[in-house]
User: Fold this.
Amino acid sequence: MLLTGAFNLLGVLAGLNSIYFTRFELKRMRELVGKMQLKPASLADRIEALFRLSPEQAAGEFGSLVEETRQLVHAAFPALELPMPFPADACQQRWSRRRFPEQQRRA
Assistant:
């Protein structure tokens, strides 16, 4: 999920900066981030650090990056509404392997 989040964050920022972005560019992330005029401070360092932090710390730092990115998007497009289904720093529970009642075997 963290890698997907990093891709999505870079995609939003690339769009905000009118820069073409594909997933393979993560290998050259610093070059991509260097082209961006609008970005959170120390973006490349912070994204790389996400993968070295504990899950709780990574979620908090990623939430900060998401919120800073939302502020940049809002500054560029004030009329755009950016609802979020849950707070940026919220940790979601892992999926359980429990079956739903209709999927349980009948005896």
